[in-house]
Structure formats: structure tokens, C-alpha cells
């Protein structure tokens, strides 16, 4: 499953250039760009992501999986769906970028209650900033964050930064794995 997901990410979500031409959120320029949404929103990509993330967290005693909208949303939904297929249901939730200012004022959407153990997910980690923000917001709503799972680690210190906020952090796919696949696909 992982090999197939790497192939799909290289086809739909990964761009590489010998010169740093891609501007990141930080303003820094990079040789590569990863936008996981074309993959995580595709039927096969969603299937693979859901199963791979579920396999990463299935041994934990967690009831929810989610992260900062929008990057985490398709991953959380796919994971929740896969968890039900495997008879080990884990709920999906979404963390807002801006706090709701009407009705019940809260950061989190989904059927979650304070005290529940959860996994925070993100599609890509560079510095880890959005994942850390999600961890902080989940905790402010009373959730117990026990792990963070990143779909693609750009290998630029993000996992190490996230680890300062939650000890158990893992990535499904690394930048090096994407570059190896991309190079293999483009050498012909």
C-alpha cells in the first residue's frame, strides 16, 4: 500500500525542480513542493491513506483522529472510514483555523468530548507549525493528544518540533522516499 501511495503522490502531489522555485508558507523557497490534496481527495489515494494511517494508530487506545482544516480533513475521514471497515471505529474531527464566533464557540467540529484520547494528523510537515497549532487547540478543548501522524515529512525539522509537544510522532512517507520515486519515474 505504501509503495502505491508514494507512486500516486508523485503523480498527483509532488513537484521537484533543480532550482528552488516553490514558495512555502514560511516564505522560504524550496526545490520541491508537496500538495497532498489531489491525492487524499482521490478515491484510491483516500483508500490507501485511510488504511495506512489506521494501521499506524490501531494499537493505541484512541477514540478520535483529526487535525487542522483543510489538510487533515480528508485524512481523518479516510482513517475513520477504514477504522469502521476493520471493526475498530475511531471518530474523525476537524480543528478550525479561526474560532467559531456564534452558537457554541469552539475550535473542534465532530463528536468529541473532553478527556478523549486522540491522534492529531497533518498532510505535510515542514516546520510542524500547523500540527503544533492543532495539538494546542485540541488540548484547549480538553482532548488528550497521545500521538501525531504526518502523511509526508519534508524532513526539515518538523517532526522534531512536533515532538516537543507530543512525544509519539511518526510520518507515513518521507521526502526522501518521494524524491527516490520521482527520480526513478523521470530517469527514463
Automatic annotation (TrEMBL):
**What keywords sit in the KW lines?**
Glycosyltransferase, Magnesium, Pyrimidine biosynthesis, Transferase
Q: Where does 5-phospho-alpha-D-ribose 1-diphosphate bind?
A: 96-97, 100, 102, 122-130
Source domain of life is: Bacteria
Enzyme class, first EC level, given as a word: transferase
Domain (Phosphoribosyltransferase): residue spans on this chain: 111-173
Entry keyword Magnesium: yes
Q: Name one GO molecular function term.
A: orotate phosphoribosyltransferase activity
Answer yes or no on keyword Transferase.
Answer: yes
What family does this belong to?
Belongs to the purine/pyrimidine phosphoribosyltransferase family. PyrE subfamily.
Can you say what this protein is called?
Answer: Orotate phosphoribosyltransferase
Amino acid at each position: 500500500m505504501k509503495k502505491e501511495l508514494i507512486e500516486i503522490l508523485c503523480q498527483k502531489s509532488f513537484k521537484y525542480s533543480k532550482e528552488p522555485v516553490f514558495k512555502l508558507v514560511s516564505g522560504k523557497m524550496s526545490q520541491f513542493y508537496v500538495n497532498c490534496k489531489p491525492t487524499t481527495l482521490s478515491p484510491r489515494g483516500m483508500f490507501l491513506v485511510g488504511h495506512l494511517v489506521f494501521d499506524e494508530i490501531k494499537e493505541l487506545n484512541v477514540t478520535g483522529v483529526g487535525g487542522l482544516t483543510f489538510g487533515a480533513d480528508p485524512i481523518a475521514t479516510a482513517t475513520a472510514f477504514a477504522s469502521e471497515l476493520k471493526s475498530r471505529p475511531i471518530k474523525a474531527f476537524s480543528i478550525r483555523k479561526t474560532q467559531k464566533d456564534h452558537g457554541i464557540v469552539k475550535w473542534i467540529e465532530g463528536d468529541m468530548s473532553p478527556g478523549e484520547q486522540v491522534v492529531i494528523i497533518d498532510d505535510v510537515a515542514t516546520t510542524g507549525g500547523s500540527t503544533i497549532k492543532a495539538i494546542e487547540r485540541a488540548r484547549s478543548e480538553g482532548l488528550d493528544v497521545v500521538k501525531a501522524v504526518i502523511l509526508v515529512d519534508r524532513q526539515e525539522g518538523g517532526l522534531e518540533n512536533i515532538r516537543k509537544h507530543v512525544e509519539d510522532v511518526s510520518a507515513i512517507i518521507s521526502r526522501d522516499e518521494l524524491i527516490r520515486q520521482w527520480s526513478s519515474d523521470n530517469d527514463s
